[in-house]
Amino acid sequence: MITTLAIMALGAIVLGAALGYASIRFRVEGDPLVEKIEAILPQTQCGQCGYPGCKPYAAAISSGEADINLCPPGGLDGVRKLADLLGREVKPLEAEEKPKQVAIIDERTCIGCTLCIQACPVDAIVGAAKQMHTIIEPLCTGCELCVKPCPVECITMQPITENLDNWKWKYPVIEIKRAA
């Protein structure tokens, strides 16, 4: 009788697995406040705030470890949005606010050392060893992390002028969801 029950239980498990019912998946979600803070940050992953990227900075803000005014790419507008979200006082930016910018490689000077590629946190630089490199401008966040490691100083930062293609960087995009 026990073997019959064991066989039936094993059969139920096999059938359940075949149908997908026996596989339990756990979804670990992050802290909703950290996600809201991170959504406000500019996603430059530049480290100018003292943290290795926007998500660690968001976690530090959420825990009270970091202040909301440490992100130069986010600017004072970012500080205002964070203060509004967290119910905190708006403080002046700790560092100088910079205009949106993009890296430019002087392709005649580039020696193909790949140090800039290794430094880029968003993979906006393409090229091969001992070959000329270039920037994929729509991917460049203007973090400046590629400038310092360049041994021939062929990378400069150029401010981005506002136009129809990039105006959304300055203004939030509003999603409209329609009821089904």
Essential attributes:
180 residues, alpha+beta, 3-methyladenine DNA Glycosylase II, Chain A, domain 3, Alpha-Beta Plaits, 2 domains, two-stranded antiparallel sheet, 5 helices, 4 strands, 30% helix, 8% strand, flat, cell membrane
In short:
It is found in: Cell inner membrane. It is built from 5 helices and 4 strands; from the N terminus they run H-H-H-H-E-H-E-E-E.
Give your account of this protein's structure.
This protein has 180 residues and is α+β, with helices and mostly antiparallel strands. The chain folds into two domains: 32-86, Orthogonal Bundle (3-methyladenine DNA Glycosylase II, Chain A, domain 3); 99-172, 2-Layer Sandwich (Alpha-Beta Plaits), CATH 3.30.70. 30% of the residues lie in helices and 8% in strands. It contains five helices and four strands; from the N terminus they run H-H-H-H-E-H-E-E-E. It has helices spanning 2-19, 32-40, 54-63, 75-86, 115-119; strands spanning 101-105, 125-126, 134-135, 155-159. The strands form two sheets. A two-stranded antiparallel sheet has the order 1-4. A two-stranded antiparallel sheet has the order 2-3. The N and C termini lie far apart (53 Å). The model is unreliable at 169-174 (pLDDT under 50). [4Fe-4S] cluster 2 binds at residues 110, 113, 116, 150. The complex is composed of six subunits: RnfA, RnfB, RnfC, RnfD, RnfE and RnfG. [4Fe-4S] cluster 1 binds at residues 46, 49, 54, 71.
